[in-house]
Design brief:
About 40% of the residues lie in helices and about 20% in strands. It has 8 helices and 9 strands. A 5-stranded parallel sheet has the order 2-7-1-8-9. The chain has a 4-stranded mixed sheet with strand order 4-3-6-5. Strand 5 and strand 6 form a beta hairpin. It is globular and about 75 Å long. The model has no long low-confidence stretch (mean pLDDT about 90).
Length: about 210
């Protein structure tokens, strides 16, 4: 593990864009460099779910206490249950030099960017609307009404795409290429000066003796 701080990468996309599959490929191909953020929730564990691996399971009072203490990068309430991204988990991994992947919807992504400006927002999308619709229909598990509601939601979400730092195409049959593109983006972000503070300071100290007049 190197001493460079990790990158917080927030990945969003339309329902049917394949972002979950892309994230799994990224984590598989670069297992030592990334981890998936573990969310906290107040819902009960489902069969097979492990605390600390799938979610951090909290009761409502504990979750709300942590909200008051500012311990979430973002949080929301769905169907009477809280879901949130714990700061401690994310920052511990980043400080270890591990880049953290946070796969969340747009509103949560924008909240993270507001509270952690160095976060990199990446939006995954098929190249065309026709391909997006074909993927939704190809699942074969959703009713026509559900498919149309997902497309209607995508019509709303497209208005926020320009708030993302990068847009990455996930073309049919090119999951690995899409994951590798995201990896290259994150590697490029590591070379920005905002992440190079320790290196810059080291070079500054080493070159101090060569300043003119000193």
């Amino acid at each position: 593990m190197n001493n460079q701080r990790g990158i917080l990468a927030v990945i969003s996309g339309f329902s049917g864009a394949g972002k979950g599959t892309v994230v799994k490929e990224l984590l598989s191909a670069h297992a030592q460099e990334y981890c998936l953020s573990v969310s906290a929730t107040t819902r009960s564990p489902r069969e097979g779910e492990v605390d600390g691996k799938h979610y951090f399971f909290l009761d409502k009072a504990d979750f709300e206490r942590r909200i008051g203490e500012g311990r979430f990068l973002e949080y929301a309430c769905y169907v009477d249950n809280y879901y949130g991204t714990p700061k401690d988990f994310v920052y511990d991994k980043l400080n270890q030099g591990i880049s953290v992947i946070l796969e969340i919807e747009i509103q949560g992504a924008l909240k993270v960017k507001e509270r952690h400006p160095e976060a990199v927002l990446i939006f995954v999308t098929p190249p065309t609307v026709e391909e997006l619709e074909a993927r939704l229909r190809g699942r074969g598990t959703e009713t026509e009404d559900v498919i149309l509601s997902r497309l209607a939601r995508a019509a709303e979400e497209v208005e926020y795409m320009n708030k993302y730092d990068y847009i990455v195409l996930n073309e049919n049959g090119k999951i690995a290429e899409c994951a590798e593109m995201i990896h290259r983006i994150i590697e490029s972000e590591k070379r920005k000066t905002v992440y190079g503070g320790e290196l810059i300071e080291s070079l500054r100290e080493g070159l101090a003796a060569y300043k003119k007049g000193e």
